């Protein structure tokens, strides 16, 4: 089902596009959707910036892979991720956001107006650019991960842990993030297995000590997940013991990946300050990058929280910073 096909871009059964190679000038260009991009669009459109938003490779962002969202304010009964993203998109379009299909494949931020190439074909010239391209969770590459995504497989314990209250789960990873996820789940779940590839943690000493001192966390050092198994939902994971060579099943209902995220910042990395992982660096208490008029919001600049509500908040900040910048520059 194509939840995100903009009907106003359809004419005689065909999607309308700009002529290939034709440049277009806009005041505010938003790259990426999801809570950050759509919230930025809502605020930018209400400020009469006439934003153009390109939805990216995954319209709606990571929440479109989430069945239920119960921790976003305003939805007392919860809401499915795809429906929530469609609501945000409709709200942005209500105020005049021009949402389009397309991926930013190149960028020239060396001078204003900034130039963004879409799908290797069209160049958009923009007075301000809001980057909301998110981050992609790293997965093991198991076929069963995709099969059970949203049905027992997750890359966010804070998002989905509540659904496994009182059940048994596994966390894959040996770094600080994996320890944090395991500790969070230990407060909800009956049993948490930590599957660690190495014979020691990569995590800091204090985090390693914390998980080792929690009674309902069992650490499986030198183990590798081979396959997630189940019927409609996950009921176990086949693990390989590297010491003995044995494969066996660990019975669980939730399988959480905590092996890191890759921020989708590669297109802009030549011009923007990033950390050693690739997260775009923003000035404290703002969405401003090292280039004026170029803002970053959501998971592409947030390595700490990675929540829909914090992404939405930073999208608001980015739009307000863009509006102030354009006003100060007389653009």
Shape descriptor reads: elongated
CATH fold topology of the largest domain: FAD/NAD(P)-binding domain
What distance lies between the first and last C-alpha atoms, to the nearest angstrom? 40 Å
Give the SSE string: EEEHEHEEEEEHEHEHEHEEEEEEEH
* Quaternary status: single chain
Describe this structure in words.
This protein is of the alpha/beta class and 331 residues long. It has two domains: 7-136 and 261-328, FAD/NAD(P)-binding domain, CATH 3.50.50; 139-257, FAD/NAD(P)-binding domain. The protein is 23% helix and 27% strand. The chain is built from seven helices and 19 strands. It has helices spanning 34-46, 81-94, 143-147, 157-160, 176-186, 205-212, 308-328, and strands at 10-11, 14-15, 24-31, 52-54, 98-100, 104-108, 114-118, 122-131, 135-137, 153-154, 168-172, 191-196, 217-221, 223-230, 234-241, 247-250, 254-257, 261-263, 294-296. The strands form five sheets. Strands 3, 4, 5, 6, 7, 8 and 19 form a seven-stranded mixed beta sheet that branches. Helix 1 (34-46) packs parallel to helix 2 (81-94), helix 1 packs parallel to helix 7 and helix 5 (176-186) packs parallel to helix 6 (205-212). The protein starts with 9 loop residues before the first strand and ends with a helix. The model is unreliable at 1-17 (pLDDT under 50).
Topology:
Layout: E1 10-11, E2 14-15, E3 24-31, H1 34-46, E4 52-54, H2 81-94, E5 98-100, E6 104-108, E7 114-118, E8 122-131, E9 135-137, H3 143-147, E10 153-154, H4 157-160, E11 168-172, H5 176-186, E12 191-196, H6 205-212, E13 217-221, E14 223-230, E15 234-241, E16 247-250, E17 254-257, E18 261-263, E19 294-296, H7 308-328
Parallel strand pairs: 3-4, 3-8, 4-5, 8-19, 10-17, 11-12, 11-17, 12-13
Antiparallel strand pairs: 1-2, 6-7, 7-8, 9-18, 14-15, 15-16
Helix pairs in contact: 1-2, 1-7, 5-6
């Amino acid at each position: 089902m194509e939840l995100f096909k903009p009907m106003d871009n359809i004419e005689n059964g065909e999607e309308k596009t700009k002529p290939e190679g034709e440049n277009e000038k806009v005041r505010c260009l938003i790259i990426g959707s999801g809570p950050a991009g759509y919230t930025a669009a809502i605020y930018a459109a209400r400020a009469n910036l006439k934003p153009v938003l390109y939805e990216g490779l995954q319209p709606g962002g990571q929440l479109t892979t989430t069945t239920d969202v119960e921790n976003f304010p305003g939805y007392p009964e919860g809401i499915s991720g795809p429906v929530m993203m469609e609501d945000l998109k409709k709200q942005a379009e209500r105020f005049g956001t021009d949402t389009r299909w397309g991926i930013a494949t190149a960028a020239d931020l060396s001078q204003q107006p900034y130039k963004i190439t879409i799908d290797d074909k069209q160049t958009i010239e923009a007075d301000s650019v809001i980057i909301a391209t998110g981050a992609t969770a790293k997965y093991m590459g198991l076929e069963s991960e995709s099969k059970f995504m949203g049905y027992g497989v997750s890359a966010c314990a804070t998002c989905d842990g509540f659904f496994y209250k009182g059940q048994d789960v596994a966390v894959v990873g040996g770094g600080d993030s994996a320890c944090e996820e395991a500790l969070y789940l230990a407060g909800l779940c009956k049993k948490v297995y930590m599957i660690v590839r190495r014979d020691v943690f990569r995590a800091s000493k204090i985090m390693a000590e914390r998980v080792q001192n929690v009674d309902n966390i069992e650490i499986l050092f030198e183990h590798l997940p081979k396959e997630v198994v189940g019927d409609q939902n996950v009921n176990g994971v086949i693990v390989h013991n590297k010491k003995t060579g044995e494969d066996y099943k660990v019975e669980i209902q939730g399988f959480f990946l905590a092996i890191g995220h890759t921020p989708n910042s590669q297109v802009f990395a030549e011009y923007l300050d990033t950390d050693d992982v690739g997260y775009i660096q923003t000035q404290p208490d703002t969405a401003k990058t090292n280039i004026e008029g170029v803002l970053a919001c959501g998971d592409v600049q947030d390595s700490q929280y990675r929540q829909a509500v914090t992404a939405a908040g930073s999208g608001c900040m980015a739009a307000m910073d863009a509006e102030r910048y354009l006003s100060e520059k007389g653009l």
